[in-house]
Amino acid sequence: MKKDLPVILKNLVLSMQESDFEEIAFLLYDFQLKNNPIFARWVSFFYENPLNIKKIEQIPCLPIEFFKYYEIRSTPKSPQIVFESSGTTQSFRSKHLLTDTFFYAQNSIQIFEKQYGKLENYHILALLPSYLERGNSSLVFMVKQFMEKSASAYNAFYLNDFEKLFQTIQFLLKNNDKRKILLFGVTYALLDFAEKYNGNDLSEIFVMETGGMKGRRPEMTRAEVHTILKKSFGVKQIHSEYGMTELLSQAYSKGEGVFDMPNTMKIFLRENNDPFTYTSKRGLINVIDLANIESCAFLATQDVGTLLNENQFILLGRADNAEQRGCNLLLEQF
User: Fold this and answer.
1) According to the model, what pLDDT value does residue 274 have?
2) Domain boundaries, position 53
3) Which of 16, 31, 112, 196 has its CA 20 to 30 A from that of 326?
4) Cα angle 110-76-47, degrees, rounded to a multiple of 5
5) What distance in Å separates the CA atoms of residue 9 and residue 290, rounded to the nearest whole number?
6) What is the pTM of this model?
7) Span 290-299, mean pLDDT?
8) What CATH number is given to the structural domain containing 192?
9) Which of 204, 235, 253 is the last residue of a domain?
10) 94 lies in a domain?
11) How far apart are CA 109 and CA 147, in angstroms?
């Protein structure tokens, strides 16, 4: 195995066309099978000869919960940073060991700009209190990279200072320099902000919600959240970001809960009781993320969705207790 293969794979991913997905996925599968002992052991549960796989749908996706209990890595390199998920205890947070922050930033910026245009065209205001307090959030890191690329003097994180955020938005709306205003926020904080400033005309801003109540509010469907935010902000659509600690690529929705997959991501929906029975209707989300070169690119999440076509999906929420039991049984056998 070439020592520089991860570098080659990163260059392939950053320059890939949509038609390259399957070829790169198999290169990555072969690399991770040989260099990721946790993934290799997982695959061995399903195949006596894992190299006989002919379709990417046949690749066993590693339960995302493994990031809580094991170091999921395909390289011996020391990490530059360790991203951690939110959680009630330190010991049960997912940890993603990242050896190349520059590649993560490049990939995330490329995905965003393909959907929304150059970051230099935006002022970026971030309302991510719970993520900011944690200090090792992949989302905060990504938004910081967006801010650096944007280079607006008004880019800022607002912990809980709603008044300052509102004043900044009002100032930018009155002193229009042709840049768009992007408000990036965790769901519960956006709802708090919307309640406090309900009725003010903020229709000229882009609102991007990242999900998450974090126990601060009763759980709501995305449609319910968006209805409240649209009415409060006076905007036609609420945009959404689909990402997580364990992924290095993101999907974005420009409204109606429809997410566009980037070139680096492909989603399959699995049946609850059979990891290799796929559906286009309602199912648990499997993700292939080609940017996860030095961890694991093939992941089984506990998110539920429906597929609209090969490039779009709707996120319905998290699996209920019955749906999670199937995954837990597999974990117990590992």
Assistant:
1) 78
2) 5-75+263-333
3) 31
4) 85
5) 9
6) 0.92
7) 98
8) 3.40.50
9) 253
10) no
11) 10
